[in-house]
Amino acid sequence: MSISWREITNTGAEVMAYKLWEDIGLNIAKARKASGMTCAELSKKIGCPESRIERYEYAETKVNLAVLEKLSKCLDVSVDWLIDAKFDSPDGECLYSIGLMGRDHDPRYETDQFKFWVYATSARMAFFKINEMIRLAGRRFVGPGVHAYVELRGTPITKKWIESSFPRKADDDEPIEKD
Length: 179
Description:
Blueprint: E1 5-7, E2 14-16, H1 18-34, H2 39-46, H3 50-57, H4 65-75, H5 79-82, E3 94-102, E4 116-120, H6 123-136, E5 146-156, H7 159-165
């Protein structure tokens, strides 16, 4: 089944900065404590040093999608919950654009050269999907002084949306109106 999309404009961008990592760290700690695990126990389950779990929880180290997937399985929560995802559509994945900017909105870093488009369940998941592709290629997407920004660009067109947005037609013989 093919999916059609409707364009979304002026939604505002979410900047992937310290708040993202802080939210994730708090959620990792909350889920770990709720499961009754120590940092040492969790680190053994996902195969990393205990200090790395602590650095994730205190937002001192960035966590990638592969690690988030391991954490979600061990902690019995979804990756979306760990990243504190805000869903833009109840009807599935949306289309997002991702760009780069300098920490102080330095125009040297704001460029269309690095604009990516991805389907994802949320802006944060869109960021992690692109970040993971670049990480697997042995590259770094964002670094000191450079942040990614994610904008919602399209949502799925559903029967429910069509019914709420357009008038019901009278019959199959629709007259042509002259301009």
